[in-house]
Amino acid sequence: MDRRLFLALSTTAGASAAALMPSSGAYAAGGADADRKPSQDAAAAGPRPGEYVLWYPRPASEWLEALPVGNGRLGAMVFGGTDAELLQLNEDTVWAGGPYEPANPKALAALPEIRRRVFAGEWSAAQSLIDSDFLGIPKGELMYQPVGNLRLAFTAEGEAEDYRRTLDLDSAVTSVRYRRNGVTYRRETFASHPDQVIVVRLTADVPGALSFTAAFDSPQTVTGV
Fold first, then answer.
1. Contacts of 81 (CB under 8 A, 6+ apart)
2. Taking the chain, what is the end-to-end CA distance rounded to the nearest angstrom?
3. Residue 147, SS3?
4. For 114, phi and psi rounded to 5 degrees?
5. Partners of 212 in beta bridges
6. Which residues does 64 contact at the CB level (< 8 Å), separation at least 6?
7. Which of 65, 179, 203, 207 would disulfide-bridge 60, Cβ 3.0–4.6 Å?
8. CA dihedral of 187, 188, 191, 196, whole degrees rounded to 10
9. Dihedral of alpha carbons 42, 47, 49, 55, sign
10. What confidence tens digit (pLDDT) does each residue in 132-188 have?
11. Does the pLDDT of residue 38 top 60, yes or no?
């Protein structure tokens, strides 16, 4: 994303969030804290559990609709299907590039001038300095490559109802919940940094109702060592 667009979107999002903050009764009544703004009070209180949740009424039909989890080294895009689940996996050593140094030795000295140009509205000049002195070496880092696909196929029959797919931005857990033939199924996926694993937990509220097969495939081929 272009950095100018990123800054503009960030400013717009912040203004929108402040405008949407609910008003407190104390402010409406003109109490002792009437001079405080609702957005200040909400920021001081911090987010409530489950407050920042993305949710969808259907599984992902393409990669951009899947929900991401990751721990910095491992990553997965979770599609959330009902007949079959797909996790597309990444790992940080599988990528299209060679040796890469993310810390540019010129970056620290260039940062004050980059900030000055940004706040002065000198977008092109700021971008030019970022490109030359701030990004990693080499500047154009190549793409990560997919490690492969973890596929879970479920044997339950019937139509899925009451479907809900979520990503909790506080807990970094993506979940899928739906009901089929009177059984509620739930699937939770997260990436653990201490354990360096991606975890998938599958449950059903009726004993013996959960049945699936797992398979793995990959577009990567090994031609030699």
1. 59
2. 37
3. coil
4. -60, -45
5. 154
6. none
7. 65
8. -70
9. positive
10. 999 887 776 677 789 999 999 998 888 999 999 999 999 999 999 999 999 999 999
11. no
